[in-house]
Amino acid sequence: MLYIFERFVHFLSWRAAQLAQLAMFIVMGITVINIIIRIPFRPIGGAVELVEMFGAILLGLGVAYTAFVKGHIMVGILVDRFSPRIQGLVEAIVKVIALFFSSILAREILFFASNRMEAGYVTGHLGIPIAPSIYLVGVGFVIFCLVILLQLIKAIITVIKGSET
Questions:
Q1: Tens-place pLDDT, residues 131-163
Q2: What total number of domains does the chain contain?
Q3: pTM for the full predicted model
Q4: Rg (CA), the chain
Q5: Residues whose CB falls within 8 Å of the CB of residue 22, separated by 6 or more in sequence, listed in order
Q6: Helix intervals (H) in the chain
């Protein structure tokens, strides 16, 4: 059962990361084109708005896969000296705290997006609705919460069995 959940979380986080990569490609394209055409012509109108929106999407959708592959910086100088069970216990405590705050963050981002959609907020120059990009960030953090939940389950298994397997 854990294997199925892990595969599901991996699939979701990988697809979100692919969308984040697309957002990064768009940000890079807008930036390069804006630099190239700035001298002979006028810069792209609304480029800053687009880069801000796609940058937020990049962050929101990229964080889950980074956490899944443990691509973030960890300092375990002290914890690495403990037994696997103690390491699992520390990991479980950290994951409970992370899951608590991340789930609040995801809920509030989705609530914020809903409010912006109801109010009809759009960007200042291009008039693009901002709610869809905020929703994507919220979905990215929901997937991030699933990754943390998976890591919490693995940490609990480590505490109980003394190893992850």
A1: 999 999 999 999 999 999 999 999 999 999 877
A2: 1
A3: 0.90
A4: 20
A5: none
A6: 2-38, 47-68, 84-119, 131-161
